[in-house]
Amino acid sequence: MLRNNAVQALVLFFRHCLDWSDFLKNGIDAEILLKINDVMANQVIEQARRRYE
Fold this sequence. Notes:
It is built from 4 helices and no strands. The protein is an all-alpha fold.
């Protein structure tokens, strides 16, 4: 399952011309992912918000 999620994340980054290496080093601003309006990205953002509230 984890491998499948990583592949999906790579596809998301590739599809939207995001820098995967920079993401691994520095993370990414949630606002960038929100602008993409991708279902998987939105789910990740929501989960992170719940975790860090």
